[in-house]
Design a protein that fits this description.
The complex is a heterodimer of chains A (103) and B (212).
Chain A (H helix, E strand, L loop, with lengths): L2 H22 L8 H24 E2 L2 E2 L3 H14 L4 H18 L2
Antiparallel strand pairs in A: 1-2
Chain B lengths: L1 H15 L1 H10 L4 H11 L2 H12 L4 H26 L3 H9 L3 H8 L4 H28 L1 H4 L7 H13 L6 H17 L7 H4 L2 H8 L2
Classes of the chains: A mainly alpha (103), B mainly alpha (212).
């Protein structure tokens, strides 16, 4: 087996184990109100940071480019309470156009 | 009804970005089988891209494993949150674990009622799984024909979706503070730390804001 397969299989197994362990943590450990508040916030902080990374970095460096136009359209569409598919397709189309025009 | 529609829209939009993964993996000298295996079994976009990128940049399998696993760490934290909502046991829990990713968790927590949270989790999770795998295969087979994924807006699909997921939640003051702080924090440190650290380190912000 070559080294690529080793990396592929081992990472896959470890990543599944992480997902499963998260689900299997006994509920009693999580019953405290403070733990509840923090676990409620965890998806919010992770996803906020993920948006920042996906929209404004390239290879871990801060970068503002065509993606800003797409995200701006998404936020305007959300503020205008437009349906979800419009938000995403609008963002993708805007970003693609700005990219192709090399603005 | 719109919960199902929105969940499947996420599945399609995010899944379509699987084209980018399939194409990149093959361009970086992984086989079509390896690309498909990663999408089926690893099934976590950031970990998949990092594994391929590290190895194609000449990194060792060990460094690829560490980076990929580290980036997958947040799925464990999503699992903690989703387990509280889903309350599953046995086989269903094992299946739910596999589809516990950014999208399924994000769309689920954006719902008000427990019933809609369940629906959103399963529909988004399976929707992304189906389309991500389908498009990985298409991307891997057609790597050369697609070319630049930015020209199709695929690089902005995911952040736009998460904006939509976060938007309704940020009306609550604590969630807004935690979200904005995390956004600024991640961008501030990204240049100085390994990939994955800017995201997972925001758990500290959740702990501080949620303390009282």
């Amino acid at each position: 087996m070559n080294s690529q397969w080793v990396a592929v299989i081992v990472t896959s197994v470890l990543c599944y184990a992480i997902k499963y362990i998260g689900h299997a943590i006994p509920e009693i450990w999580l019953a405290h109100p403070r733990v509840q508040r923090v676990t409620n916030l965890i998806p919010i902080v992770l996803l906020s940071a993920l948006v920042a990374m996906q929209a404004f970095t390239t290879k871990t460096k801060f970068m503002v480019d065509h993606r800003l136009a797409g995200i701006t359209v998404a936020i305007v569409a959300l503020t205008a309470k437009l349906p979800f598919p419009v938000v995403v397709i609008g963002a993708m189309a805007t970003s693609a156009i700005v990219y192709r025009l090399k603005i | 009804m719109s919960v199902k529609r929105d969940s499947l829209s996420v599945g399609l939009a995010v899944g379509a970005a699987g084209v980018a993964f399939g194409a990149v993996a093959v361009a970086d000298h992984f086989t079509v089988a390896q690309a498909c295996f990663l999408s089926l079994v690893l099934f976590s976009g950031a970990s998949q891209f990092s594994l391929v990128a590290v190895m194609s940049a000449g990194g060792s399998p060990l460094s690829a494993i560490i980076t990929g696993t580290f980036l997958g760490g947040r799925n464990g934290l999503y699992g903690v949150r989703m387990a509280q909502i889903l309350k599953l046991k046995g086989f269903k829990r094992a299946v739910a674990a596999q589809i516990t990713i950014d999208e399924s968790t994000g769309v689920a927590i954006a719902q008000e009622s427990p019933e809609n949270q369940h629906t959103a989790f399963w529909y988004t999770g399976f929707g992304v799984f189906f389309f991500w795998n389908l498009f990985t295969l298409i991307g891997a087979l057609g790597a050369k024909a697609i070319g630049d994924t930015s020209a199709w807006g695929l690089d902005v699909a995911s952040p736009a979706i998460f904006c939509a997921v976060l938007f309704p939640r940020l009306k609550e003051r604590k969630l807004l503070i935690a979200g904005v702080l995390s956004f600024i924090w991640a961008l501030s440190i990204t240049q100085f730390v390994p990939a994955g650290v800017p995201i997972i380190s925001t758990v500290v912000i959740a702990a501080i804001v949620g303390w009282k």
